Amino acid sequence: MKVAIVILNWNGKQLLEQFLPSIMKHSSAEADIYVADNNSNDDSVSFVQENYPQVKIIRNAENGGYAKGYNDALPHIDADIYCLVNSDIEVTKGWLSPVINQFERHPEVAVIQPKILDYKDKTKFEYAGAAGGFIDSLGYPYCRGRLFNTLEEDTGQYNGSQEIFWASGACFFVRSEVFHQLKGFDEDYFAHQEEIDFCWRIHNAGHKVHFVSESRVYHVGGATLSSGNPRKTFLNFRNSLFTLVKNLPEKKLVRTIFTRMLLDGVAALKFLIELKPRHFWAVFKAHLSFYRLLPLYLSKRKEQLTKKEHYFHSKCIVWNYYIAGKKRFSQLQRDSH
Prior knowledge:
Blueprint: E1 3-9, H1 13-27, E2 32-37, H2 44-51, E3 56-59, H3 65-73, E4 81-85, E5 89-91, H4 97-105, E6 109-118, E7 121-125, E8 133-136, E9 141-143, E10 146-147, E11 150-151, E12 161-164, E13 171-175, H5 176-181, H6 194-204, E14 208-219, H7 230-247, H8 250-273, H9 277-302, E15 312-314, H10 317-323
Parallel strand pairs: 1-2, 1-4, 2-3, 6-14, 8-15
Antiparallel strand pairs: 4-13, 5-14, 6-7, 6-13, 8-9, 10-11, 12-14
C-alpha cells in the first residue's frame, strides 16, 4: 500500500524547520513525503529544497486555503493513501504502521484519524480532533476527549480502534480513490470544517471513518489561524451552516438550520457581553455570507442523492455542556434516534 504524506504550507518556514524533522525521521521509510505550497512569499520552499532534497515540492498557483490547496495538489500525487498533515504536527515512532494495517484489514474504511494530543501539554488531548469527532442533532462538532474548550487528560480511556463521525484535518488519512470519487474538499469553505463536510459525504457514500489510538501525534493548534482571530470565528460559524444545508435529511433541514441560527445569535450576544465586538461582527458577517451563498449550497445539496439520518451522537451538546454541566465525552447519553 503506497502512502504519501502531504504537508500543506503557506509562509511556514519556521514550522517546517521545527516539525519536518520528526516526519522525516519516523516516516521516510514507509511513505513518500511532499510539501504542497500555497504560493508562499517567504523562503519556506527554498528551505525544504536545500535541507530536504528528498521531499517533493508541489507548487499551487494561489493560496486557496486548506480545501483548494489539497484539491489542487493531490491529483499530482500517485498513492493509495494520502496522509494530510498540518505543518504544526509532531509525529512519533511507529505512527504509520497501525493506520496502514487498519486500511488493509478494513476495505470499508475510507478515512482514519490518529490520536491527537496537545504539543504544549502532551498529557492532554488537543482541541482539533482529540480521539475522534462526532456531531449532535444540531450539527455541533465535538470530540472524544474535547467538549468545547474542555480538554481531557489522556489516560487511555479512548484507546483502541473505533468508528467515529469525522476525522480532524490536522492529521487526516484518506484513500485516494475515495477522495477523488467525492471530488475532494469543498473549496468554498476555504478553511475550517471542510473535513466534517467531507466525512459526512463519506458516510452518505457508504464508507466508514475510524480512529486508531495506536497512532499518536502532537499538534500545536492555531499556528496558522488562532482561536482569537475573528476570521476563524467567521469561517467556523458560516461553514457549519453550509455543512448542514448540504448534508441534512429533508425532514430535519429547516428546523435544524433555524435553531442553529438562533443559537448563533446567542453566541454573538455572548461575544458582545465579553467585550469581543470583532467576534460579534464575525458571526453577523457569517450569516450574511451564508444567505448570499445559500442558492449555491442548495444546488450542492441536490448533487447528493443519499442523506442518511443516524449520525448524531447526542441530542444537544450545548444543553449538555452549559446547562447540565457535562464536561466529558463519557458523560453524554447517546441519541438513539
